[in-house]
Amino acid sequence: MKNFYNWTIEELKNYLITNGFKGFSGDQIFKWVYEQNIVDPEMMTNISKELRAFLKENVLFDYLEVNHQQVAKDGTKKFLFKLDDGHLIETVLMQYDYGNSVCVTSQVGCSMGCSFCASGIISKKRDLSVAELVNQVASIQHYTGEKVSHIVVMGTGEPFDNYDNVMDFIRIINYKHGFQIGARHISVSTCGIIPKIYEYAREVIKSNLAISLHAPNDEIRSKIMKINKVYPLPDLIKAVKDYTEISGRRVTFEYILLKGINDSVGHANELSDLIRGINAYVNLIPYNPVNEFGYKKTDMKNAHKFHEQLEKRGINATLRRELGSDIDAACGQLRLKKEVSE
Ligand code: SAH
């Protein structure tokens, strides 16, 4: 059996044509599955009887298996999905006034080793397939009945360490007869894998890029993020500048405020100087404490002071609202408690 969720529209059309069917039926099937949440070929009434029978025989449309589900006070829903090989992954649905956003996981575990992030506690086991990426969104729509309008690839894993699958995923969710999620409603976050930033800059679909910066200088960044030893800050800043010029798009810098580490007025000044002139804005993130690590969250008063200092220095910044922290679904808290405790 072939897994439906692996196919971009071109691949599906090729598959149909190879098997003696019309390519345009691909669009019809995409609409049923991704727009209507219909996965039983019998119910796809505008395709031929022969094609329905063929799909039933040869193509798998199953949703991901829910192992566990939690709802936070603010309505954020976290799903623990069980993959075919038994691995568990987490996907989060966040409800905003502008729509429903899904935070997608890109790998089982993560090897980037950022010292503050809970996802790295379990080292990378494997990349997710295209089908597993797409099916997180399809399954969320199916189980909640909610229409998904925004995607952030900010769950467990480093998306640029699973680049080709993540890009096929974006092609599928962006397609006009699928989920139809606009490029500007899709964001990919990276800890800074420079060669992939250049590749991403040249992609046809201009989805958003977020860079996990988290430090105003090379020294602090090397202390808290292992990746900085491979791709140091000056090179990263140059790559981001180049990205904005090649793609014509604005970039987001994510900056976690860690008490006593990177959150002083002096750091705000340093950060302003570092990124001045780049078409970017800064998303300040209150740190979600992870028991094992010992980092502390900046108090809100200081977070506002840091924010004001950036603005004073002409840098656009926002202080992010936290969703789902009471169920460990907020940034950096996605982890498989069951596996960790074993
Ligand atoms: N690997 C990618 C995407 C996943 S992390 C990346 O590094 O960008 C998504 C965002 O959450 C990143 O900016 C990450 O640094 C941040 N994050 C990690 N741990 C966090 C924590 N405990 N509190 C707040 N944000 C955290």
The CATH architecture of the largest domain comes to Alpha-Beta Barrel
CATH H-level homologous superfamily name of the largest domain: Aldolase class I
Helix content: 25-40%
| Discrete helix count | 12
Structural class: alpha/beta
What's the alpha carbon Rg, rounded to whole Å?
21 Å
Number of separate structural domains = 2
- End-to-end span in angstroms? 34 Å
Low-confidence blocks of residues:
none
Strand composition percent = 15-25%
Major beta-sheet overview: 10 strands, mixed
Hetero groups: S-adenosyl-L-homocysteine
Strands, total number: 14
Written as H for each helix and E for each strand, in order along the chain, the element string is EHHHEEEEEEEHEHEHEHHHEHEHEH
Give me the CATH fold name of the largest domain.
TIM Barrel
Largest sheet: spatial strand order = 3-4-5-6-9-10-11-12-13-14
The top level CATH class name of the largest domain: Alpha Beta
Q: How would you describe the shape?
A: elongated
Mean pLDDT score: 94
Structural notes for this entry:
By secondary structure, this protein is an alpha/beta fold. It has two domains: 2-60, DNA polymerase, domain 1 (Orthogonal Bundle); 65-341, Aldolase class I (TIM Barrel, Alpha-Beta Barrel). Helix content is 35%, strand content 19%. Helix 1 (9-18) packs across helix 2, helix 6 (194-201) runs parallel beside helix 9 and helix 10 runs parallel beside helix 11 (300-312).
